[in-house]
Design a protein that fits this description.
globular, 5-stranded parallel sheet, 43% helix, 16 strands, binds pyridoxal-5'-phosphate, alpha/beta, Rossmann fold
């Protein structure tokens, strides 16, 4: 029983944690012994990217049989780079491109793997029920999850996205999704409304409220099966720096991570707990700077306006995975974590103890990129380095610059690039002074003429694909909607 809820002593195996997604008490599953269990991280760095994935995932999820096979089924032929996540030198820094998968965002790395883990866990646990994945998305998770789960036997998937909160390209990717076991629905509201609706559905639809023969799970980063695959690319980046002679073995490397739900950056912390010489993890936020304020003050306060920015996948005020960090930084004090989460939901605010904050600050720094700096950064990096980045990556680029100026360490810096610039063509074109006429698909072509890099496979021809999903609901109706879909003998069953 390796995995424990962050809110109680409730424990389950790794296979059960992945099938459940979230603990019955509302907590998130975590391995409290990760830092104490020995891992041959140096040996791991000598392996191929898929070899690293196998070694790391076997360590994080030791209950799974045949991890090597699951890894090759997840990644073979799906990414357009042999390195999986190539490391590109841009000026004095390094950009880790995480967007070479089927949907052109970093979530592909985890969501190519998750369906393999879910189906393997289902077999190992002897579960006959259909596993229905409920997902709230700020734009990228939804498509990556649909791409991963469509037509996977024994599973169904329901995706909820904020009606006016995703880019036209993101929306087109989702509403054209094929597959007999998929359903996509727009919600009138923002991402937090979608996420809290999905959490309510998990709480409401248990026991008799669930139709026989199915159970729910999550593809959001509250599922540990989402986080584990993301640990891998921190090792891939470090190994690439070693191979190119940019660092010596054991040198610390700082990682700057564009952050929303705190999943990506937490995976970097797991890599550090496993021994990888990670220096500072810089949490880069957009104008929704709730995490910047938390890291600076120790007070998490969601009572503020939700701002819609040009980096929509990071427009989040309730950053779910922070809960796992609170658990680790408090030395596994699940009562304290449960209390903070109760305050967050009832009062919208909590204060984390100073001593535990000091522990967090030893590993993490925060930086925020205001809206006007985002596009300015894309323009500057393009003019100065000839490198075109998307709006989310730009938030991290700006954060990296500010962090290095305020705390010069002489260490190498890796900036995580979470999406292809072609996914946000309007904002990127505007940033480099391009012609904005036409729709986002015309803009994508124009961007291609300027940047001369290939448009990702999954984004080509998007406009011509038929729209298959047109449902729109109010956030308050989300639980009923899920129930109707589950009772429906059709698609998602
Ligand atoms: C989801 C997402 C993020 C934020 O990642 P978290 O794990 O939620 O912190 C950043 N950039 C892009 C493009 C994303 O899709």
């Amino acid at each position: 029983m390796l995995y424990q809820s962050t809110r109680s002593d409730h424990r389950v195996s790794d296979t059960a944690a992945i099938l459940e997604g979230i603990a019955p008490d509302g907590g998130l599953y975590i391995d409290p012994t990760l830092a104490a269990r020995p891992f041959d991280w140096q040996g791991c760095l000598a392996l191929s990217p898929l070899g690293m994935a196998e070694a790391i995932l076997s360590h994080l999820l030791p209950g799974f049989a045949g991890m090597g096979e699951l890894v090759s089924r997840a990644y073979d032929g799906k990414f357009d780079s042999e390195e999986l996540t190539p490391l590109v030198k841009v000026g004095n820094d390094f950009v880790l491109e995480l967007f070479h998968g089927p949907t052109a965002a970093f979530k592909d790395v985890a969501l190519s793997m998750l369906p393999q883990l879910v189906t393997a866990a289902r077999t190992q646990e002897g579960v006959r029920d259909k596993i229905v994945i409920l997902t709230a998305t700020s734009g990228d998770t939804g498509k990556a999850a649909l791409e991963g789960f469509h037509d996977v036997a024994g599973t169904g998937i329901l995706v909820f996205y904020p009606d006016a909160g995703v880019s036209p390209v993101q929306k087109a990717q989702m509403v054209t999704q094929v597959g007999a076991n998929v359903k996509v629905c727009a919600v009138r509201g923002n991402f937090d409304d979608c996420q809290s609706g999905v959490k309510r559905a998990f709480a409401a639809l248990t026991g008799d409220a669930l139709p026989a023969g199915c159970r729910l799970s999550s593809a959001n980063s509250i599922n540990i099966g989402r986080l584990a695959p993301q640990v891998v690319y921190y090792f891939i980046a470090y190994a690439a720096l070693l191979r190119r002679g940019e660092i010596a073995p054991g040198d610390k490397v700082d990682y700057v991570v564009p952050t929303g739900n705190f999943g990506d950056i937490l995976a970097g912390y797991f890599a550090k707990l496993m021994g990888l010489p990670v220096g500072t993890l810089v949490c880069a936020s957009n104008a929704n700077r709730v995490l910047t304020d938390f890291l600076e003050t120790g007070v998490y306060d969601k009572r503020r306006d939700f701002l819609k920015t040009v980096s929509p996948s990071m427009d989040i005020l309730v950053s779910s995975n922070l809960e796992r960090l609170l658990f680790l930084a408090s030395g596994g004090d699940s009562a304290l974590v449960a209390d903070c989460m109760r305050k967050l939901s009832s009062e919208g605010v909590y204060r984390f103890p100073d001593e535990a904050m000091a522990r967090i600050r030893a590993d993490f720094a925060a930086a925020c990129c205001e809206e006007e700096d985002c596009l300015a950064t894309i323009g500057r990096v393009w003019r100065e380095q000839g490198y075109l980045c998307d709006t989310h990556t730009a938030v991290a680029m700006k954060a990296a610059r500010d962090f290095k100026a305020s705390r010069p360490s002489g260490r190498k810096t890796v900036v995580l690039s979470t999406a292809s610039p072609y996914k946000f063509p309007a904002a990127v074109l505007k940033a480099i002074g391009g012609d904005l006429s036409g729709d986002e698909f015309a803009q994508m072509e124009r961007l291609h003429e300027i940047a001369k890099t290939p448009i990702p496979r999954g984004l080509r021809g998007l406009k011509e694909r038929p729209v298959l999903h047109t449902d729109v609901i109010d956030a308050k109706d989300l639980v009923n909607y899920v129930q109707r879909q589950l009772n429906d003998k059709g698609e998602t069953r």
